[in-house]
Amino acid sequence: MATRAARLSAEPAAGQAATVRGLTRSFGDRRVLGGIDLDIARGEFVALLGRSGSGKSTLLRVLAGLDREARGEIGVDAAVAVSFQEPRLVPWKRVLANVALGLRGHDPVGRARAALAEVGLTKHLNAWPLTLSGGEAQRVSLARALVREPALLLLDEPFGALDALTRISMHRLVLDLWERHRPGILLVTHDVDEALLLADRVLVLDEGRIAHESAVPLARPRHRDHHDLVALRAGLLRRLGVDPEETA
Ligand SMILES: Nc1ncnc2c1ncn2[C@@H]1O[C@H](COP(=O)(O)OP(=O)(O)OP(=O)(O)O)[C@@H](O)[C@H]1O
């Protein structure tokens, strides 16, 4: 099959934040992504699960435009923002300056301040990044992504390093921000429950392909012991090669 060069600047299909067809990515002889087809609609929340090394971060980096070596048809809205597991703040700039960094257009500092208020960090505008807790730093990272008003927000394990209680409050915050701004979201996570509590659709990446997809047609906020979620969880865990009984 002929593969076309990536067209990262291509527009996604109408109504979509991202449209990907036949995306492949190899490192040397090793093909990590072997023909990904993926649509993320505007305003849709999609979670991506997969075993360690299955290529989740690679896919996310391609969508973010950070990896230009992939092949296939890749249409991503120009307004794309990313937040990683480690917040990647500039240590010698205060919180407000971190969020305003590189912003163009009208009143960057005012917009940065408003984004920080949305994530509940008004008190920390002048703090240095290294003085923040993990959860606070992750909120700054989210504010920095949001202030760009992305049509597509890419989240790479953003809560993976946080303690359980902070993670729960971050879930609430992300849902709140998503409902207010309605970007398309692709959330990479190892946590099946996180995927089921947040996403409209959960994808499983395996052997370089989207091997499975579960729709989660439940209103939010969701409860992890809801019987539909229990059944979906068991199915997803099996897809990931885990015995659901072991994690009960
Ligand atoms: N720059 C690179 N050079 C060579 N190999 C790479 C590179 N980036 C990723 N890989 C390989 O591609 C595979 C997929 O990596 P990736 O980080 O996308 O997996 P992942 O699903 O995000 O894993 P994890 O859940 O552990 O974060 C891994 O085997 C990794 O070693």
From TrEMBL:
Limits of the ABC transporter domain: 18-232
- Could you tell me which Gene3D superfamilies the record lists for this protein? P-loop containing nucleotide triphosphate hydrolases
Q: Which UniProt keywords apply?
A: ATP-binding, Cell membrane, Membrane, Nucleotide-binding, Translocase, Transport
Give yes or no: UniProt keyword Cytoplasm: no
Molecular function as annotated in GO: ATP binding; ATP hydrolysis activity
> Per its UniProt record, what InterPro entries does this chain match?
AAA+_ATPase, ABC_transporter-like_ATP-bd, ABC_transporter-like_CS, ABC_transporter_ATP-bind, P-loop_NTPase
Q: Which is an annotated Pfam family here?
A: ABC_tran
Q: Which PANTHER family match?
A: ALIPHATIC SULFONATES IMPORT ATP-BINDING PROTEIN SSUB (PTHR42788:SF17), TAURINE IMPORT ATP-BINDING PROTEIN-RELATED (PTHR42788)
The protein's name is: ABC transporter ATP-binding protein
Q: Species name for this entry?
A: Nonomuraea terrae
Q: What is the lineage of its organism?
A: Bacteria, Bacillati, Actinomycetota, Actinomycetes, Streptosporangiales
